[in-house]
Amino acid sequence: xxxxxxxxxxxxxxxxxxxxxxxxxxxxxxxxxxxxxxxxxxxxxxxxxxxxxxxxxxxxxxxxxxxxxxxxxxxxxxxxxx
Length: 82
Description:
Number of strands: 0
Structural class: mainly alpha
Largest sheet: none
């Protein structure tokens, strides 16, 4: 799977300025897109699970368990150093 790294830009100020102008005016070269090599059946199955996952989990949890999970999340947020 392709990485999600940002576009590499030159570090030199003049080259960076030139690249920005080229992008702004639409004269920059467009990078070649990576072909989608994922299995269509796996993608469809993933979307199906994602669409019902949170609702199914919420329905299966008891009120006490949901409360414990929420309490743990709150404590984790408040213990962070800012």
